[in-house]
Amino acid sequence: MCGLTFAAKFYTMEPLRETILFWISMPIYVLVIGAEMLFSHFGHRHLYSTKGFFSNLYLTSLNFGLDALMKFVGVWMFMNYFCDLGGFQIKAEWNPVIYWVVLTVAEDFMYYWEHRVDHYCRVFWAVHVTHHSSKEYNMSVGFRSSVFQPLYRFMYFVPLAYFGFTAEDIMFTYAWTQIWGVLVHTQTVGKLWWPIEYIFTSPSHHRIHHASNTKYLDRNMGMFLIIWDRMFGTFEKERDDYEPIHYGLTKNIGTYHPVKMVFHEWRNIFADMKKSPKLKHKLMYLFAPPGWSHDGSTKTSNQLRKEEEEVIR
């Protein structure tokens, strides 16, 4: 029944919310990105470049097409199956405020774990790295999408469907929290009021997430809430007593080539797998954290952080 209900609503009323959200968010994006561009230009901040900006638009257009396909195929065929399997049916009509608050918190919690896996398992990092490969950091980087992420992202939200949240509500919640996730990509906003900084992901927090400085690697994974990072040991605050933030990767790709921007890490994985004849090592190059190597020639973020801490001591 749940799956049939979704199929019936998919092309009728339910997408209306996302359509309205889209038409509300697009003028906001245009205004804030335009304002940031003007601030950068007249303030001589050099936050934007033409190639960088259009590369971000190119990557989000690739992501958008695949996301549109998987929104129907993945959610209808998979998530609604679990909706029926769970045997639960949470209804927004019971208490709309509690329903949407719980769904928002639960959805952000699942996103945190998806994002953390993307950073700590190299085969998923090969997908996600595109979002981090810009040496520039501005609001348009929020659109620098991980192209193939829609192929597996919906699987992290299956538990929400299992416990009775409808697939269309899950998608809508992800869509509006993603607006917040785009807007925090900025260098032009400082630290916010401390209660906001403690609970929500702020521009300050997300600057750390995009930094390539050793201390900041793989930190601040939350998209809407930062409390998960505080709870699970991945939080790091922006520090005035540390070196300035360097954006991008520890080893930048140095290209705007449309294919290399998407596939460069896959090429690196296959090159690393050739280094050792052992199957164990080949599998580790796929599933271990980025930077792992069987001969110590490269190091993970945790290994690099430990070495830096030992030098400081």
Helical segment count:
14
Helix percentage range: 55-70%
Give the overall shape. globular
| Count of domains | 2
The major β-sheet equals: none
**Span between termini:** 62 Å
User: What does the average pLDDT come to?
Assistant: 89
Alpha carbon gyration radius: 20 Å
- Which band does the percent of strand residues land in? under 5%
Q: Could you state the order of secondary-structure elements as H and E?
A: HHHHHHHHHHHHHH
Structural class label: mainly alpha
Poorly predicted regions:
3-13
Number of strands: 0
What attributes characterize this protein structure?
2 domains; mainly alpha; globular; 0% strand; 313 residues
Structure description:
This protein has helices at 2-10, 15-42, 50-86, 96-120, 122-132, 150-153, 158-162, 167-183, 194-199, 203-209, 227-232, 260-273, 279-287, 301-312. The chain has 313 residues and is an all-alpha fold. The protein has 2 domains: 2-232, no CATH class; 272-312, no CATH class. The longest helix has 37 residues, at 50-86. It is globular and about 55 Å long.
Write the layout of secondary structure elements.
Layout: H1 2-10, H2 15-42, H3 50-86, H4 96-120, H5 122-132, H6 150-153, H7 158-162, H8 167-183, H9 194-199, H10 203-209, H11 227-232, H12 260-273, H13 279-287, H14 301-312
Brief write-up:
The protein has helices spanning 2-10, 15-42, 50-86, 96-120, 122-132, 150-153, 158-162, 167-183, 194-199, 203-209, 227-232, 260-273, 279-287, 301-312. By secondary structure, it is an all-alpha fold.
